[in-house]
Amino acid sequence: MKSGLMFVKLVNPCSGEGTIYLFDLCLQQLFEIKVFKEKHHSWFIDQSVQSGGLLHFATPMDPLFLLLHYLRKADKEGKFQPLDQVVLDDTFPNCILLLRLPDLEKLLQHVTEEKEVDKKKYYKYSKEKTIKWLGKKVQQTVSALKTNNVNVSARVQATAFFSGDPFSSDKEEDYVCYAHGLISDYIPKELSDDLAKYLKLPEPSVPLPSPPSKVAAQRQKRGK
Q1: Alpha carbon distance 179, 174 (integer Å)
Q2: Which of 12, 121, 149, 178 is the most buried (most CB within 10 A)?
Q3: Can you tell me the distance from the alpha carbon of 25 to that of 120, in angstroms, rounded to the nearest whole number?
Q4: Contacting residues for 172 by C-beta, under 8 A, at least 6 apart
């Protein structure tokens, strides 16, 4: 740990496996680590050239995606519980760092029902609220894609995504489909399927194309 930065292994909210994240103890913020790797690349660092195409970069991540993993797991008991009894993990004990994040109660309003007893708050996972929150995430992603002039139509159509209509001209639908795929990297498949129904997306005939960061990660695995 240096300058308040701490690399920790936490549960991946999509796969359930362990993944390395970066936690800024000073800013109280969570970052995911993205990896970019190309075989024949070098980087200019100060006045020198460093060989090797491997590049790690940290991007801010909404901690609510990780908290959802524990809320959904606790929901199997069907009762309201204090958060410190929900976010517990023998495999990934650093999950308690999530409880230090600011505005946590405000975040939880998007995905839980809440009760207060003797000035102590108890929470229970709400699927309805969660799907609506994820729907907003998709729309925010669509807006970001458009603002940055990211053309996703060709990527979606190239995979013959729409059953019976492989070359849809509905560009807005292409953006929503692609944004749904990006958000699905942070949620389990069951939630992804429920979100697709909420967004009224057509049944996919083949998987959506992977975003650039995922393609880079897949190349890294093949290169090992």
Answers
A1: 8
A2: 178
A3: 25
A4: 142
Distance CA 137, CA 50 (A): 38
pLDDT digits (tens, 9 = 90+) for 169-181: 448 888 999 999 9
Neighbouring residues of 103: CB distance < 8 A, sequence distance ≥ 6: none
Angle at 198 between CA 196 and CA 199, to 5 degrees: 65
Alpha carbon distance 188, 97 (integer Å)? 22
| pLDDT at 88 exceeding the cut of 80 | yes
The residue written with tokens 């929150």 in the block is 133
In DSSP notation, 57-116 reads EEEE--THHHHHHHHHHHGGG-S-B-HHHHS--SSSGGGGGGGGSTTHHHHHTTTEEEEE
pTM, two decimals, is 0.78
Mean pLDDT value across residues 8-27: 93
